[in-house]
Every structure is written in C-alpha cells, then in structure tokens.
Amino acid sequence: MPRTAYRPTSAHPHRWCRKLHRATAVFVCLGLVLSMTFGSLPLWLLVVMTLAALLAIVIVAAGTDLRGLDRQRAHSAPLVVRPGWAAAAVVADMAGLFLAVRYVLNFSAYQTDLNWTVAAGFTAVAAGTAWAVLYTVLHIKAVAPAQERDAA
C-alpha cells in the first residue's frame, strides 16, 4: 500500500495497524491450531474464549461508536487521528503480536503438559475478554470525526 493511499479508520487508525493485525492473526491462528492438535487445551475453552471476546468487542464497539456521523456516509467521513490514542493502539498491537509469537515459539515448552482447570479456563476467558475490550477501545478512541474547521 503506497504511503499516499493511507486513510485512517477506526479499525486502522495508524499506518502500522493493518500490518500488525495481519501478522498477529497469522500467529494467533497458528497458536490455536497447535493448541487443538498437540495441546491439552479443551475445545469448550477455545469456543467460550472466542465468543466472550466477540461479545465484548460488539458491546464496546456499539457503546463507543463515532458520534455525529451519518450512518450512510460513515465509511467515507473525514476523520482526525488522535496521536496519543493511535500510539497506544500501535503499542497494544505490538504487545498482541509479541504475545502471539511468544506463545507459538514456547508452545512445546509448557502447553503440552499443562492440565487446564475450570479456574484457569475462566481466568483465560476473563483475560482474553479484557484484552479485546482494551484493544477495541484504543482503536476506536484513536480517531474522531473531523470538525468543519479540521476538514478545511
């Protein structure tokens, strides 16, 4: 993607977000495949974690929707990037990528002999949900609708 084609959105408020999201998705999928294939991570835990994270993202995204935008033109409305929030979103993306890569590289060291308990499962669900909420809030707060004076 050329530098001039970059346009901030609430999903990708910073230039690095799209690349980091793709890399993180690859490593998360690889980690889930390893967990299901070789680990003792139960299927119910993966399903519950995924559903809890998706539910949290939907709730937070609905509550932090960009106010004042016409829904028909929201995808093309001019946005202003908030540099502090955008930097925090990139840091969250980098942390997520680091954790995903670390999980895949250290998988054989600890995952195959780990016996999951119910408490550990619900702790993992809570941590995954909290991460999803933080991630979503940072990316949505990183942009704001442009005011009339900002658009000029």
Enumerate the strands of the largest sheet in spatial order, edge to edge or round the barrel.
1-2
What fraction strand? under 5%
- Unreliable runs: none
Structural class: mainly alpha
Order of helices and strands: HHEHHHEH
Give an overview in words.
- The protein has six helices and two strands; from the N terminus they run H-H-E-H-H-H-E-H.
- The chain has a domain of about 60 residues.
- It is elongated.
- Strands 1-2 form a two-stranded antiparallel ribbon.
- The chain is mainly alpha-helical and about 150 residues long.
- The chain starts with 14 loop residues before the first helix and ends with a helix.
Q: What attributes characterize this protein structure?
A:
152 residues; mainly alpha; two-stranded antiparallel sheet; elongated; transmembrane; membrane
What's the quick description here?
Keywords: Membrane, Transmembrane, Transmembrane helix. This protein has 152 residues and is mostly helical.
Give me the secondary-structure topology.
Elements: H1 15-37, H2 43-63, E1 79-81, H3 83-105, H4 107-110, H5 118-141, E2 143-145, H6 148-151
Antiparallel strand pairs: 1-2
Helix pairs in contact: 1-3, 2-5, 3-5
